Amino acid sequence: MSTPNATLQIDGQSIEFPTMQGSIGPAVVDTRALGSHGYFTYDPGFLSTASCSSSITYIDGDEGLLYYRGYPIEQLAEQSDFLETAYLLWHGELPGSSEKTQFDALVTRHSMLHDQMNNLFRGFRRDAHPMAVMVSIIGAMAAFYPESADVADPHQREISMFRLLAKVPTVAAWSYKYNKGEPFIYPRNDLDYAANFLHMLHATPCETYEPSPVLARALDRIFILHADHEQNASTSTVRMAGSSFANPFACIAAGTACLWGPLHGGANEAVLAMLEEMGHVSRIGEFVDRAKDKASGFRLMGFGHRIYKNMDPRAAIMRQTCYEVLDELGLHDDPLFKMALKLEQIALEDDYFVEKKLYPNVDFYSGIVLRALGIPTSMFTAIFALARTAGWIAQWNEMIDGPGHKIARPRQLYTGPQRRDFVPIDRR
């Protein structure tokens, strides 16, 4: 079906632009030729601008929909696992049995870090934030795999993709171990992706750690739910860095750095900080009243979402997982978790929250789950980066492999001085 043209009337001239329709979602106006007429669009934050075309992830915030390659996130979280989801993001289709076995094996075999990378970790202060370490170590991988610089070679791209997906959990776990002052724990090839990460976090040379299947499954679901989320700030950063044909490790390091920003990847950490500030279930009413008072400037963390105007489709899955974990560990009476559950009840029943559709989002429940898994808040964003690596890699490869590749070059609305002549210092 053909799409109509859009017409811009400006300064006595009429400029026509074609429109483009995706498989689902709103149509877009193709303004690529606008610059030749002496104008640019102005859209700070790219809130109404499609920076690329992609077949990976679809979001409808009004309807509360999130699809990976057309598959609803609820189905993937319930029936798939993280590595199968990563395969889907990369290849566009779910794997067959032999393809899944081969994919899992390749990831498993690439999970160790080069032994000399131990020295890099020891160059950081012990109290360095895990995200600071991760940004540095991921970027440094390019020094150990120089062949990855040839991004035009599909074979080298594929090897780099496997290296990143396999090694980032090890980087994240070792960042935590270094911060804690404990010896590094090497990955185990007999464990699945999530269980292996828990092993590297919690085991020591003195004591093994056998993760509960319930807990490993909960973490795997967190990975699935955070694997991709369309063209957010960090994904756009990966694409922008990759548009220059920078090596994939540099691109993922750039995405990790962007995710570290408190407005992006730190929401689940903020939930726990808020609960700790409350201190006791008796103070919940006080905080709820502050949230209702617009003049206070206070808002409850973990409620509502910039994109989803109804329920976050990931939240229902995470809520179920949260209760499974609390049941498994017997933590319903823990003071912090009692506060969280009471706050959830109020938000789901209070007319103010219901009318404004301020439902608990995925960050509210994932923060609770991660805390229950014994993971400190300083690691929450690192785990987010670990999961999102699968999506970043898919987005990066799609961009490199796509037709009509161009280096990113946004324009600006210039507001500085007009031309002026230099005045020597003795005449100023």
Description:
This protein is mainly α and 428 residues long. The protein folds into three domains: 6-65, Single Sheet (Rubrerythrin, domain 2); 77-261 and 379-401, Citrate Synthase, domain 1; 267-372, Cytochrome p450-Terp, domain 2 (Orthogonal Bundle), CATH 1.10.230. It is 50% helix and 6% strand. The chain is built from 17 helices and seven strands. The chain has helices spanning 73-79, 82-91, 97-109, 117-121, 130-144, 154-180, 193-202, 213-225, 233-242, 248-259, 267-278, 284-292, 313-329, 335-349, 351-355, 362-372, 380-401, and strands spanning 6-10, 13-17, 19-20, 28-29, 57-60, 65-68, 71-72. The strands form three sheets. It has a three-stranded antiparallel sheet. Strand 5 and strand 6 (65-68) form a beta hairpin. Helix 5 runs antiparallel to helix 10 and helix 7 (193-202) packs across helix 8 (213-225). 39% of the residues are buried. The model has no long low-confidence stretch (mean pLDDT 92).
